[in-house]
Sequence to fold (1488 residues):
Amino acid sequence: MRASEMTWQEYRDCIATSIIFLPVGAMEQHGPHLPLSVDMILPARMSELAAEQVGGIVLPTIPYGYKSQPTSGGGQRFPGTTSLNGNTLINVVLDILRETYRHGGRRFVVYNGHYENAMFLTEAIDLFVSAAPDARVMLLDETLLISDEMLDELFADCGFPGWDLEHAAVIETSLMQYFAPELVREDRIVDGQIKREMPYAIFPPPDDVIPESGVLYKATFASREKGEKYVKHVLPKIVEVVRRELGV
Amino acid sequence: MRASEMTWQEYRDCIATSIIFLPVGAMEQHGPHLPLSVDMILPARMSELAAEQVGGIVLPTIPYGYKSQPTSGGGQRFPGTTSLNGNTLINVVLDILRETYRHGGRRFVVYNGHYENAMFLTEAIDLFVSAAPDARVMLLDETLLISDEMLDELFADCGFPGWDLEHAAVIETSLMQYFAPELVREDRIVDGQIKREMPYAIFPPPDDVIPESGVLYKATFASREKGEKYVKHVLPKIVEVVRRELGV
Amino acid sequence: MRASEMTWQEYRDCIATSIIFLPVGAMEQHGPHLPLSVDMILPARMSELAAEQVGGIVLPTIPYGYKSQPTSGGGQRFPGTTSLNGNTLINVVLDILRETYRHGGRRFVVYNGHYENAMFLTEAIDLFVSAAPDARVMLLDETLLISDEMLDELFADCGFPGWDLEHAAVIETSLMQYFAPELVREDRIVDGQIKREMPYAIFPPPDDVIPESGVLYKATFASREKGEKYVKHVLPKIVEVVRRELGV
Amino acid sequence: MRASEMTWQEYRDCIATSIIFLPVGAMEQHGPHLPLSVDMILPARMSELAAEQVGGIVLPTIPYGYKSQPTSGGGQRFPGTTSLNGNTLINVVLDILRETYRHGGRRFVVYNGHYENAMFLTEAIDLFVSAAPDARVMLLDETLLISDEMLDELFADCGFPGWDLEHAAVIETSLMQYFAPELVREDRIVDGQIKREMPYAIFPPPDDVIPESGVLYKATFASREKGEKYVKHVLPKIVEVVRRELGV
Amino acid sequence: MRASEMTWQEYRDCIATSIIFLPVGAMEQHGPHLPLSVDMILPARMSELAAEQVGGIVLPTIPYGYKSQPTSGGGQRFPGTTSLNGNTLINVVLDILRETYRHGGRRFVVYNGHYENAMFLTEAIDLFVSAAPDARVMLLDETLLISDEMLDELFADCGFPGWDLEHAAVIETSLMQYFAPELVREDRIVDGQIKREMPYAIFPPPDDVIPESGVLYKATFASREKGEKYVKHVLPKIVEVVRRELGV
Amino acid sequence: MRASEMTWQEYRDCIATSIIFLPVGAMEQHGPHLPLSVDMILPARMSELAAEQVGGIVLPTIPYGYKSQPTSGGGQRFPGTTSLNGNTLINVVLDILRETYRHGGRRFVVYNGHYENAMFLTEAIDLFVSAAPDARVMLLDETLLISDEMLDELFADCGFPGWDLEHAAVIETSLMQYFAPELVREDRIVDGQIKREMPYAIFPPPDDVIPESGVLYKATFASREKGEKYVKHVLPKIVEVVRRELGV
Fold:
């Protein structure tokens, strides 16, 4: 299922008929309790779980993504947030899609694990399909598949702040507790908040919009159970939309 | 106030002390009743109104923007939607900011009139400020400043569908009726809707998610009065945030 | 006729059969009496007049062009002269031509309103047609169509200095008096001259080749009548060459 | 030690004083018995072992590298060999070095796990240091540190063919048996050979220089013991040169 | 004087104090009687003659230039006309200027031997000096220094057609007879002419504007004597302007 | 045989059927006794000799190449070493191949005269053939064709140090004595050596790995006879592999 673990012969025998997942992550601060790799781990694990069910294969995760924005990830000022320029990210994704297409791949899920990547992935995919008319690509960020009921349930105790503020907070912490508990510093989980609302962007960002801890909302409300609940809720939805759109 | 109408001496005498607005638009379908220039006209007019109040100057609008997406603008398949590649847009904006900085400009509002431009503007501005440490740039899309109360009022009769679906619909039509009624085909205003929800993107887009008319929501609920109300509501907010953040 | 004012359906119905004009301008100083937008206004207005007669449509003017040169526009040192790098301009024009071709457009007039743009437009068009073999593009700068007789007439009182020095001078001032008199500061019209001849270029330009006012020749000899005469002389010629070469 | 597993605070506290390892790999065929990830795993593991001893930290491995060449990796024709264009790889590495420098990093080891990457890494590093005069970067490929004596020992039974032909063969297989035995298909280990010598390159490559299995030399002579011997031989050498050149 | 023939020590000892000539040519058809290298040979020879007199050094000629245009060089359709894209040429020149500046060079003459190169050289130089404020660069095309009297004399027998049409014609043939007579096919010298005037450009170029022979004017009026006269006329002028502007 | 000396008609008549040699050189220090043009002259002369025998034609040498590395050419710190960025070199070669292909050329030998160019030439050729499926390109560096016996003979007196250290040393000096003795400063021939072994690269390079003279090995062992012997040995081999692979 992981392309990286296949031999070339195994890859050859399944690439044309499989759904190909390309997880795209980021190296980005996630508060004092989570590692810089949250946005690499989550799309990789979700892709693997989905690929298992739809007979897909998963390409190696792109570990570096686009620049973090203050109101969705704390911004570039945090040490460790290590980002690519927009055009670099476009070209990395474009090259990988073209190569996999050259090998026979036709149906792709670009699985985005870092909100700020989205438009650069869009551009890469658009440039790709314009020269590969028989390819079909889904750009997926599973947060958009979560139902309102599930949001109500997951945030019953603290309220849902919107997905942009859900950085290093309830869902990401819960998912890391579920997928990679050994990487969660349980004793350093804190609640954070964005210091003031800013429905626009300022460059360079003013100090007072950057949360000190890097956590944008209430991470202490996270739990492994919420992580599991989230995955069990969204995985069938992913499988369903992939099947529907990519014809498996 | 319009830089394009100034002589170089007039420009010279105010550039260092003025807030400089750069409207960025798009050439994009807006249904059977609105012209392709909606996203050029609105940010230009809003910039002018705001510049009047903060002593700003307005650069010529960039009339071509990033590619339209099916669920926020109908997508690239509509004739007339004429877009730049992402990297081209980044470079256009970057060059203009650098030139204006070279002339002495330090405080900028990049006024975005086309949702899909946002991340490419972000990248251009980020590249710009990283080499212009004493510049300060606001990236502004005024829809984010509208209060919930105003939304309730403007959409009292038809319900607010979310900003992405508000394409060629209530607000854009109302604003065009207010700012440029001669360009609105009153007899061709229709309600549209996105044919099915798609909380992800598919490339190339399936036919059945593209609204036939190009209108994503209910344009018949538009009125010049709503346009005026919207402007009178949001203009003081723009003035306030510009003053606060750019220190006028 | 203006694509920007069409709906997508109107655009769709005429794009394949129309001559498509793309005016390319510049934001550039034009002396103490003319606005920075001269090179945007003139190609736009000329394109519209020509399009009217050949059944053409006019795309939105590209308002920013290539860098001004000292001996043809005063150079980059004037505040307000806001230019694109060469490669940026190439890509902007290339993207727009490709998009319009995708919509069905096949016959183009790239109407250049700023001398320094020419070779970058040439490159953009060359790259475009090399991948669009059934497209046909004219690159037009109407000054080259003016007959010697008309030059004699227009410059009877002051002598023709060559087109490169005709910057912010007789013709441009006359045309602005004709097309946009409200933007001409009549009381600030001055004669200028290049301080010394320099049949080569020096970078950075020496101070003593840059005319203080930005006017390279005698603007006081301009008149609305000369503007009208120029337009009435050249418009039929434009129509003729467009018809001949693009087969209307 | 793995930057990806650190929190931003942990990263912040050590980045300025640590040697920073950036492993650069490739997704490339490695015969019927090894996974496509050999060139990701080996530089990552070696970097970790070295970092442990010099107090270094290891950035996430770049999993995609430059195009495989027929005589050193079998070439691009094998399914699964998924490569970046040269300029893309340059920009990825350049962006990451710049970001880490921005965070305070000054001493780098770019650890190359894929022969064909070398010159593109050279270019990225050269562009980086030319604007970061107080940075110091080592570009390392540990095969060059192996002593002749060790080569004699490791290849006592089959002879050393040169490093370029050592693809998916004795050393790589032995190292994978040592580091990741679960990914080695022991029952499919074969000897291969390049079909004919070609001391030049032909594009596209002739069929008869591409080894059918993807193995360029004798993989059956590999053993976990040789892998361990190799690592124990070279690791102290790596530590020594890193200490000497980067001043730890 | 030729940098290519110096050792690095000789180069080192003079680079900072010398005028540095960079000839930029083209590989372009020049009729049935002249070789493809005319535009390489002429700027190289002229640069050498000038360098001799001002104590300059001459860098290796860039042998490939920008695309030939129908009305100034016959256009790209002639076999042998082998051109660079605009952006490639910009980067080649920019890299060379930066490198020579890094070595200590401060005063440059970019000697253009191919009309169509001019604006791309302008862009390269502009980008260069914007980051090298103490450099000074002259962009020189010696045809612009020829006096009207000399033109009258050289074209007494056939009339001066303008510099653009002077392609593979009187001057270029005469200069080749003077500088490299062994490369002139005396028995194939022909007069040519552009078939019809076209004061605009068409892409792709219509067949009937491309002169069959590639000669745009009357080559039979050429002579070695005219070549010598031209050189003796213009060389002192070159020396004078170089001395005046670059302060030797 | 030299394309630069052909007329367009001569070029036209042979381009489709000839082997086309493109020599790629460098401007690089070669010690106190050799000119900066060694890497231009050698591939050009060798190409000409080979072309003579296989009925080939030789394009103008690209005189600037990729950056010199300390352990193979002394590095960039020597005055006179004037290099292109990697991506610039890629584009120059790509443009030239595409143009020659457009003229009908199908069989190419890219003759590399500068070790450090190799991977950038590889990339250019790879990009070229991927869009020119009926082209066939050999990338050739003749040092790889020298037999061990010949090496033994040529280095009988001083020992073969490996090709990377053979910079400005025995072979290059001998070849220059053979091909261009007028450019060899016989009285300044020295032996050099790299000061210490460095089986990795450091950026910026430490002073103590850069040989003072720029000579990496023993140039005093050079002789015109060795040059002649080398050429007579390798030329038939070149002719043989070109014939075999490019089907002449």
User: Anything to note?
Assistant: The first strand of chain C starts at residue 19 and ends at 24. Chains C and D do not touch (no CB pair under 8 Å). DSSP finds eight helices and five strands in chain C.
